[in-house]
Amino acid sequence: MTDLYHHPLCPHSRFIRLVLGEMGIEPDLIEERVFERRRDFLVMNPAGTTPVMVEHEAGPIPGPGPISEYLDETRGLGLGDRRLLPDDPVGRVETRRLLDWFNAKFFAEVSGHLITEKVYKRFMTQDQGGGAPDMDAVRVARANIRYHLRYIGFLIRSRNWLAGDRLTYADLAAAAHLSSIDFLGDVPWAEDETAKTWYARVKSRPSFRTLLADRVPGIIPSPVYADLDF
User: Which residue ranges does the record assign to the GST N-terminal domain (predicted)?
Assistant: First the structure.
């Protein structure tokens, strides 16, 4: 039995949901509003961030990095050529480099700002930091996403997938972050056609279906969000 504490638009949570989907694991999803600082959740993850995965034999596993490593160590070998962290050291380094790019750099420059300002603040009290979005932060994030899309396009022009010949954690992390802000309509897909084509490939995978069905009260997803032929 696998429980996943998440938020529907948290990009790190979405990454782990995609990983679990690729591995054929259907978790019980438990929505967590991290800004509420719920005591029982902080006991599981003192950092107070999502996602946290709980498997009864392992206990709480917090964060996208530890969860993805745990899943590779416990299920990776059984996936054969569908393993999401490559077998060879060079491939593993490149996959982990890109994981850090999207889960740290992209989050700090793009998705973290947009999700906080346009989603989380809607549900936060004034004491929690809620209120109107900081439009300066939104504008910076919208500008930053453009060079990230160009970088994705650059990688895909010389590779089949982001880290090499096979789908890896890198593709799922990048797609997870993009999907969160695509929900909000903030991805300028016309910026790079190669990046758009790559995203359409990932978006069409069965593991993506539950993400495309996500809804958040009071927020209407963009018209292209669930469209596989956008």
Answer: 1-79
